[in-house]
Batch of 2 targets.
Target 1
Amino acid sequence: MIDAVKLTKRYGELTVLDEITEHISAGEKVVIVGPSGGGKSTFLRCLNCMEEPTSGEVIFDGKLVSYIDPYLHDDLIAVSATCKKLVANGMNKKDAVEKIKAEKLLRKNEGGEFKTAYKHLEKEICIDLNIARRDIGMVFQHFNLFNNLTVMENLTLAPVHLKIKTKEEAEAKATELLHRIGLYDKKDVYPSTLSGGQKQRIAIIRALAMDPKVMLFDEPTSALDPEMVGEVLELIKQLANEGMTMVIVTHEMGFAREVATRMLFVAGGKIAESATPEEFFDHPKHPRLQEFLSKVIKN
Amino acid sequence: MGGFDRKIQKFWTYFYEYGGYNDVLIGLRNTLLIAVIGLVIGVVIGTLIAAVRVMPKEKKATGILNSICDVYVSFFRGTPMVVQLLLAYYVLLPLLGLNFSSLAVSITVFGLNSGAYVSEIMRSGIQSVDPGQMEAGRALGLNFVTTMTRIIVPQAVKNILPTLGNEFIVLVKETSIVSFVGTADLYKAFNDMGTNSYEFMVPYIVMALIYIVLVLVITFMVKALERSLGKSDRRS
Ligand SMILES: Nc1ncnc2c1ncn2[C@@H]1O[C@H](COP(=O)(O)OP(=O)(O)O)[C@@H](O)[C@H]1O
Ligand SMILES: [Mg+2]
């Protein structure tokens, strides 16, 4: 469903994600844990290109969501001016391509043929980011409900504006979702009148109102008062049981163990460990994960 | 104070019997037209410039747009509005061979000038909106423009309403310069009365009172608007 290929993100000198390659299949519930500042949010936000990868690609449902990374396409490199020059100097084409990839030799302008091939490839494999995002729900730590809209408007704005649903359909769906989380009586209030737990549950159904194929959660309970964590986790668990594909960044280890089909440990810009929850918690292999777990579980 | 009584009498004669109130009404209308339409144009231009300012910076087109906005804002903030008005009416129009009324030119110059100021107000308003609001909109698949117009700008406008009200008051007061190009405004109406009657004291006092009342009414209206827009903050 989602593929990250050699995903790299740098902020200036700081490499936050270092050539991460990861495949997330339909139906998986992938839970990401790791030390703060390790790149969990950045990884998650690259999956729907809220952060633009520095290099590497993100593929959703077989379509490229990020920009083309020419270094991942040998055919493209082969028609570059740089490659032609190397070949003209007597190098064999395959070696030339490898050399260009290894030494990152592509320049800004690689000639007309490269440009044409790039455009062609773009047409073939890319999907408009705004269209891809309709299928990728995202839930934020700080909820980010639209403050100037009522709950009902929060739930219907995007589906109606993007013409995915008529106003009636969107309101029917929103009504159903609000009943489901027991907040139908809040449909006409503004977000500022809601508790944190209510806000986050509405943020979750706002994403669901788009009928997404996958949901990304970035520490959905970290900004909540402890007594409200349960209701949000409960809703996420329900969605998991219904078969929603999910990627969840969280510090709630008990919840992670319960809901995950696979655990990822992200630290130092790499996925240091990927395992089933049982393996992950009971037999962690990477020393940094062992250290991390011992700290988290002690607290 | 017998002398003052006579001055009032004289003013009344010119104001009422000789029909000076007509000029005052026309002046009032023009003053409001220039300020209101000027502010509307200013808000539209200001919002567009502010949106350019906060656009993601990667693209080359954004850089060019940004430079254009820089020049625009520097010019309109860097020169007196009278100068802009005179340039527009006595230089630009003849050069372009156009023939617009001085009122139309005044409204346009006020709009363009206000746009430069409102853009700065609007930018700070947009920046005062939590970036999470833009992220949430974009994550749902809404594009930059839609998220801007449906989510960010409404919240920004609410935040800057008091400042925008101030800008409106500034515009109302500044309208007193449009007589430089012959537009009939409040100042011109009272000044004409003074010139005709050789008596300026009372006309200018009345003019000052009208400006004060205008400003008070506008302040009151802005407050009322703020209250009604504040509903999304109220706890139910
Ligand atoms: N916009 C940014 N500019 C510069 N550095 C950033 C930015 N966003 C994140 N970082 C840095 O990237 C690293 C990883 O951040 P993040 O992905 O938020 O980690 P996590 O979610 O695991 O705590 C941190 O060191 C953080 O300071
Ligand atoms: Mg984070």
Target 2
Amino acid sequence: MGCSVCGQATEQASADLCLTHARALDSVRQAYEAWANAFGSIGRADFLKRVAKQQGTGKNAREIVEFLQQRPEMWK
Amino acid sequence: MQTLIVCEKPDAAARVARALDEDGDPRRTETQGVPIYESRNRKETILVCSALGHLYAVDSKTHTSRRCYPVWDFDWKPKHLIDKKSARLARWIQVISSLASNADRYINACDYDVEGSLIGYTILRYACHGADSKAQRMKFSTLTEKELKSAYRNLAPQLDMPLVEAGRTRHELDWLYGINLSRLLTESALKQNRGYSTLSTGRVQGPTLKFVVNREEEIQSFTPTPFWTIDATVARDGQTYTLEYEKEKILTIAEAEQVVKDCKNAFLEVESADSRNVQQSPPYPFDLSNLQSEAFKHFGYTPSRTLAIAEKLYLEALISYPRTSSQKLPPDIGYSEILHGIATMAQYRTLASKLTIKDSLRPTKGPKDDPAHPAVYPTGAPPRRHLIQPEANLLDIIIKRFMSAFAEASLRESSQLTLKKEPHRFFLRGTRLLKEGWTQFYRPYTSDEFQKLPDLKVGDKIPITRIKDSQKFTEPPPRYNPSSLLRKMEEENIGTKATRAEIIEILYRRGYIKNIRIEATPLALKIINLLNKYCPLIIDPKFTARLETSMDNIQTLQTSRSHVIAETLDHLRPIMLDLIAREDEIGSQLAEVVVSQRIASLTFDYPCSQCGSQLKIIRSRTSGKRFIGCTGYEKGCRFTLPLPQFGNLSITRTSCKICGFQLVQARTKGRRPMTSCARCYSNKTRANATESSTPAAPSTSRKATDDLVEAASLVKDQ
Ligand SMILES: [Zn+2]
């Protein structure tokens, strides 16, 4: 099984994401904490929509954002 | 008695010969296109010849195939036998060799550093029938007549072998790493039968690329987070002052709104007023990397370009040897004479005269040192020809930096007012120059920043005229540019002052990095990830830095060449064997990226204006010329656009401001990258052709169509 985002090989067979996308997922998760704190509260869907619009969002983070929009259960 | 002097470059040979000839007019002859100078004085005839950089290089001792690996045996061979592009060097070796047969004294007068010592050594050893053992060494830092004469009078009795040994080791190690790893990458990808691409990595190249790749990954996985700033102003005597809030970033909207609510229409009370005088010493004299960094900052020149320009100025005896890491100016360079020389140039007369009248001249000095050369300094000689702008710019900053070194410290008053509205604090900062000191010598390369403060004292109250909060987002870490990447290499102690700029150029040429704000390409990400997975030590900057230290230790006789080589082989052998065992796995991953990168690097995002198909860069198989062609060729579209024929071509992400077409960039070594729009260029030449009655340029349209027939098959190949 490859990475759920890009299909590339994953480090461990059980992992859903390649190293690159696992790292991007971490970054998006951490950012969510910061956003929720900054606005008092924010829904995940709203957060993803707004992050997607940001210019500074990196390519891999953007791919994770799209992935999470399609498969919200992957927040874990 | 006949003396043979070997210089590194023809221009240097001409200067050495002129300095050593009694009448300053040596006889110049040419044999097989190789210039030779004959200088005469009462005692002897001196023949001065030159290399063209390295005439010898490392190559495999037994294997002749370029594709064979691993290779562990090596030898020094004439460069023209290794590299087809160096064919003309055969004549140089032949001519030097025949001159050497009649000489009874030999002198190495190549640049005095590791490379120069090695260039001279290999020529004396291999082209001059083992003359290295009896040769003498001429050492100098500028090509002025005075210094050259003095260097000739004070020859070192033998070659500087520790430098030679360090140089040999560096070339041999780089060859071992480069050849083995690069061949493995190239061949493993090639064996997948998906097209050829030269892939390379090396002892310094790998870790350097890793810096860029690491940064790229940080940028690509970056997610912005919000923060707020407070924008507020006060007014006094008709002037508006911008306040600085005590927190640069506020992390919640609630807090930001509270600050605005608390302070709206409020009066701020001056809590304290502080000022202090800051003395700033003159900047250190230039070492090479500092010169490269200033030239990038003020003129936008890449490090390799700055080095190329500086070498030219050195060969014309306008500045001292630029490949130096020293930040010191020793007295024996003759401060006063140089300053008097500078004062003869109209634009520096007033400033230089302020220094020449000083009782004692003591330059500032930096911590960095170089055993062979002082910091970069001007010789004080005015240029004998009209300098083109980049040369003039570089000479100007070098002269001004030199003068600054002798000036006094500058004195600046820096003040701060703290204003409060409990529990909040705001600041107003001001600065003014009290004493110019060195800054007057270094304009326009130093800022004359001046910021006035309102006339307020402790206890005074002043109303806030405007306050609001603004929402912002954090930004990804900045990309490296060629100058900051070079600084990073220096900080991590990888490469040498002489090679770092070239390594960065190689990364561009190989398609691993692109743009001035450096981006790592998918190919670079793949290669670094593969190396990281299979042999992380190869791209570990610490490992490379340790090798650099070993090589420095050869120069100071703390270790030997054979020891360092043996250690390296012990390290590299098992890595190579392991990699070869996984060749197939590595190759299939590489081939995939190579193919996609090749397609991406040749394809424009902007579609063909005639049929809407993709436009591509195509090289004609018959003429070798490249042009933009349409992939709709098979459907009958004959649209083409011309392209620059020289330099390494890349398609940029920037669009032409006039017509919107994607710009292409051509990079040539040592030159400013040329960015141009193929469509505007084509329109312009077409307009010119219709205006003038005689055909200005041969029409390319017919030819381009012919080429496209082959191009169509090329497209299929991909
Ligand atoms: Zn992935």
